[in-house]
Amino acid sequence: MTLKTASILILEKFKDTIYDNGMEQKEFIAQSYYNKYSPFWVSFLQRGPNKGKMKFLLKSQDYTTEIAQRKEHWKFVNASSKIGHITKLKPVAKNRFTGDIKGTRDKILVLLRGDFDSLIVVILPGKKSDYTIDQEFADGALDEEIDYLTSKVITF
Are the C-beta atoms of residues 149 and 8 closer than 8 Å to each other? Predict the structure, then answer.
């Protein structure tokens, strides 16, 4: 089992915004999880209508400063200022993205459901440099394991 140490978050979209400058922002609330990923566990919102929830954003805003060849359309961000930017999401197949979690050796896989209705976020500790996982994810070889783990999630 490739994903035996994985953590999973199931995120549901609750807001979709397109700004005048063309930037898109999609807001998601974590609904359930499998195997807590401790770096995210400090990110529960402290105030506002989503107090006590974990909120994540997909942003098309190009706020990163790397060279043009390394830029990606979507950035995955935590709404808590304790974490902020998590990763740029690199598309590897239709509705499938990979990245690495800023400041760690961890890999992130994101599976898009519907028209950005929900995201399955798979976090693989220590697998940042294991690029065979990217190809297995793109080919669907990990789908059975992801389905199994998502069947074990706990609702917040």
Answer: yes
